[in-house]
Amino acid sequence: MKDKxxxxxxxxxxxxxGFIGSHVVRHFVTNYPxxxxxxxxxxxxxxxxxxxxxxxxxxxxxxxxxxIKDIPFIDELFDYYRFDVVIHLAAESxxxxxxxxxxxxxxxxxxxxxxxxxxxxxxxxxxxxxxxFLHISTDEVYGSxxxxxxxxxxxxxxPQSPYAASxxxxxxxxxxxxxxxxxxxxxxxxxxxxxxxxxPEKLIPLFIHNIQNNKELPVYGDGQxxxxxxxxTDHAKAIDTVFHKGKxxxxxxxxxxxxxxNIDLIHLLCEQLDLKLGRPKGTASKLIxxxxxxxxxxxxxxxxxxxxxxxxxxxxxxTFEQGLSKTVDWYLDNTNWLKNVTSGAYQxxxxxMYGKQED
Length: 359
Ligand code: NAD
Ligand code: DAU
Known about the structure:
- The chain is α/β, with parallel strands linked by helices.
- It is 42% helix and 16% strand.
- The longest helix has 23 residues, at 102-124.
């Protein structure tokens, strides 16, 4: 243990080396010099300290390598640092992996969250004033929508994948600790994020990488599945807004107001990449290959974000055109980042998931 900061707000961010977590860490480290940000991350395949090299040396930042599944370690950590606030993002996050290995999701997302709740409760019970456990969740807990309708905070939970069920269980555990022990919590449920530093197992970075390398674009089913896309820094700002202005005991849905069917989004991505790579129009779309559907594939997600907008004044700032263009540029400019994360174990995952292809 090292670097304990007295007389400051000690803020623990879990999963801060991952995609969204790294943007959240950067946001808090740069905007709140009076807080000390501790980033706890196990550095699984999805965690990468390169994502944070620009803030790694800041005085108000400390990285701690560790696993939220490790109870003695978590207990010791909370005893030592006595975190005032937890923003909890650490999770197994990929639906396809949850279909292959559900137990990893139960262990990290459910048990790991319970370990943090137990440690936080133990150090602050009867002294919860000014403390906060902000749990970062997903819109997938609400299940799947038909052609119309939006997920509201009051929509009944109906998770459909092992990932979604593990996140739903963790959300309910947080609420149960509030009801039973008075834990001061907030929960956010967000739609699909995109932007720099997303691991290339997820749709947008995977397809950018494949187009660049002239590999097939594996579209699940008929491609008529709908997602509501939000630029990742807008999510980080929403988390800041809920952290500072949200009410204890409340849930806030966060969305991009930006629905796309997968196939339309893929065509847009193909057009952008043809242009940026200087290839003839129509080159990338020839790579589109319809493949076997994801098991239990949710048809449509769409968020009603009116609560966070009306009550807390948050709105997404990035347009999709700008955001997608920035994202594509980032991946084209950071081929080394991509090379590093797609070597080794990821290559084996890819071959198992999609079949081996010539590079
Ligand atoms: P990610 O997979 O990119 O990152 C997860 C991070 O958690 C990694 O850095 C990983 O090393 C770390 N981690 C995993 N298991 C751990 C453990 N046992 N102990 C400590 N650290 C561990 O995920 P992401 O896409 O950035 O998602 C972050 C959070 O936001 C998740 O809770 C996810 O459910 C939620 N969320 C994601 C999206 C999205 O579109 N990606 C949307 C809404 C909500
Ligand atoms: O809605 C929020 C959720 O969004 C987050 O909670 C998850 O952590 C995050 O992974 C994301 O889940 P999705 O399953 O929606 O994201 P993914 O990028 O895996 O897939 C987006 C859509 O694209 C989905 O309909 C499946 C489809 N798809 C995905 C891949 C990886 C394909 O057609 N082909 C693919 O190869």
